[in-house]
Amino acid sequence: MKLASAISPDELATFVIQARLALLDDESGRVEDDEPFFVADLGQVYRQHQRWTRNLPAVQPFYAVKCNPDLTLLRFLAELGTGFDCASIDELRRVRNLGVDPSRIVFANPCKAASALCTARDMGVTKTTFDNLDELNSIKKFMPNAQLFLRIYASDDDALIQFGDKFGASPEATTALLERAWDLGLEVVGVSFHVGTGATNHQSFVDAMERARAVFDQAARIGHHLQYLDIGGGFQDSGFERMASGIREAVKLYMPPEVRIIAEPGRFYARNAYTLVCKIISRRRQVCNDNSNPDMLYQNDGVYGNFMNVLIEHEIMCPSLVTPALSLTASRADSSREDGEHWYSIWGPTCDSVDCVTRKMRMDSEVKVGDWLMYKNMGAYTTATGTQFNGFGAQHPVIYINSESQTGDGGMMPLGTTESVIQYETRSGQPEIMPCST
């Protein structure tokens, strides 16, 4: 499958954004004309999946639903054949309601309520994780048919968020946990670890795999027959090939060939596929606009919404100004806009001064009230972590596109039951929005 050369994925997304904005009325006062929106490119998700299978062909991805639980994304990933990493009753229901077989789900939360265990059991989900003795007792009582993964400690000190402080049995605790599971008659089928979200150091995977092999040997001595290794998530887009190479070598070094390797990628699939478009709703101009005293822009989404990563992961936001499409220039061009360097801070809509998206950024022209800013790479831990603080929500409309819609033989990429997808026709050399046939 190849991307048609007439238009790039970024150009397609920009075209769709411009088309959407052309339909809005700045003077209407309607909520829908002031609402942020996403453009999600399922073609980018497909390319990431192909990239995964090229670099980690022996590792089955179980998408981490917590990263982005968008139903259209989940449905598309299900069609691609991924499994799913769920951590709550709601996530289990979202995936099962799509018709995903329970065998393709890992309930990867080591500490679960009784109601969660019963829900998973009743859905037919059997794979789940544990890292403490009390969890084993709960599993014995409420989910005795479970296929268990022992979650062991792992950490990448350079990860954006480390999980080792909260989850993972220490090396000193693993033998006792395996023995207790054996005494309870519970089936332990694998080992799992998670080095942290946004991991960058492939050596952390190597070290964790070495510890996992020691647990495999412990389990064999006790009588457990381990079949799986879950290497968790944390995979980033940048440097993925190098990370994958290190993982492949570690698997060869430490794991028997019959062990099935799975992983829990989230942001790797979702982050680059989503673009968020926000409207400037107010502006506060300073006496002197420079990089030490920037003008203040107020937009319709902020850190309590889809920009929580500014606080949690200290992500630096770099939006771009959406310019009108050429065909709309005559009606929407603003000849009074000042060109040249302008400095701005960007603030969210709530009444909290913490709600700052960026303290200082440079734009190549003036930004005015009514303008729209485009933020790329907004698919991971955005809507999933947003709040309703101050009455502002984080759930916004999503326009789905497919930049991978042309195959080498001229046919469309099959999308199964995926609905509301915009594809584009390239035979004329120009994009044309049209509904996707499903």
TrEMBL record:
Its cofactor is pyridoxal 5'-phosphate. It comes from the Eukaryota. Pathway: Amine and polyamine biosynthesis; putrescine biosynthesis via L-ornithine pathway; putrescine from L-ornithine: step 1/1. It catalyses: L-ornithine + H(+) = putrescine + CO2. InterPro entries: Ala_racemase/Decarboxylase_C (IPR009006), De-COase2_CS (IPR022657), De-COase2_N (IPR022644), De-COase2_pyr-phos_BS (IPR022653), Orn/DAP/Arg_de-COase (IPR000183), Orn_de-COase (IPR002433), PLP-binding_barrel (IPR029066). The keyword Cytoplasm does not apply. One of its GO terms (cellular component) is cytoplasm. Keywords: Decarboxylase, Lyase, Pyridoxal phosphate. PROSITE patterns: ODR_DC_2_1 (PS00878), ODR_DC_2_2 (PS00879). Its EC number is 4.1.1.17. The active site is at residue 351. Pfam families: Orn_Arg_deC_N (PF02784). The modification N6-(pyridoxal phosphate)lysine is found at residue 66. GO terms for molecular function: ornithine decarboxylase activity. Belongs to the Orn/Lys/Arg decarboxylase class-II family. Homodimer. Only the dimer is catalytically active, as the active sites are constructed of residues from both monomers. This is ornithine decarboxylase. It comes from Aspergillus cristatus (Chinese Fuzhuan brick tea-fermentation fungus).
